[in-house]
Amino acid sequence: MNRKPTIVILDPDPEARAEVHRTLALAGLTVITHGGHGVDGHTLVAEAQPDCVALAIETPVARGLQTLEAIVASHPHIPVVVYSSIDDGASVRRAMVSGAADYLPAPLVGRGAAESIIAALERVRPAAGRESNPDTAGSTNTAGAGMIITVFGAKGGIGKTTISTNLATALARESGASVALVDMDTRFGDVAIMLDSPVETSIADAARDVEQLDRTTIQRYLTRLPSGVSILPAPVNPADWDAVAPEQVERIVHLLAQTHDYVILDTPGAFNEIVALSLDLATVVLLITSMDMASIKDTSLVLNMLRSWSFPEEKVRLTVNHSNQANSVKESDIARTLDYRVFWSIPYDEAVSKSTQVGQPLVSWRPRSKAATNIVSLAALVGGTSSHPVRPAHGSFLQRLLSRK
Question: Can you give the pTM of this predicted structure?
Answer without folding.
Answer: 0.74
